[in-house]
User: Fold these one by one.
Assistant:
Number 1:
Amino acid sequence: MDGDWEAPLIPNPLCESAPGCGPWKPPQINNPNYKGKWHAPLIDNPNYKGKWKPRRIPNPDFFEDKNPFRMTDIVSIESHQFDTNCLLSLQYIYWQTVAMYW
């Protein structure tokens, strides 16, 4: 009942034995000019200088932390999410850390 309506198929008794009746199939003829799947031709690029890589320049302000595990304790947490459950849990964590370090 619901959905797209399709007309009922009525068989044609005159078409059962006639040539050319039945499902239509497109004719297939050979193409003598067909040379296979087409690919874009590759041409030389005179400006090609090899695979790209970034230049290495000196950085006088570079700092490498040799001991990243030596850091101070985390005393507070800041969050900018406006979720009531998240906000209540963060307030609980905050007051626990305040009570622990105060």
Number 2:
Amino acid sequence: MHIRRALGPAVLMILFSALLTAEERLDLRWRDLDSAITGKRVWLPMNTGVRISGTIGEVQPAGLRMDIRNTSDRKTYPKGPASIPRAAVSTILMRKPVGHKGLIVGAIVGGGISAMAVGVLARIGRNEGGDAFNGPIAAATITPAAIGVLSGWLFDAVAGYRQKRIVIRAD
């Protein structure tokens, strides 16, 4: 009984500890940005307080050429292709997926639980005879596997990204 009480908080602690992973920080000069961000989706907290996100097309000496997808100020930076002045950018944020470890582990654990439950129910059904256990066997096969896959997917959606902060240094 005590294990059940501790299981919920333990799972929550594991999920939230994955969220608290340290972000990677890079200090780069403007001339070194091209290879690090061209073609990648970025988030720009501008010096003016405006936040924009989009895909970097090109790093130019005067600024960034990017396709803006989201913006907090549609008048100054509307959606679509735009040129962002160099003076307005001091930090660039990038999020990149880390992998699908949660999904894989969830599928393995759920599949293992399904296999054990099916084995037990099939054994009981064989001893009892008849088709009375076909429904519970189907449910025991699908339910734990689905819960494992969905739990792993949720874990990856919540904690499956690592943030990289690029701080632009003076040339």
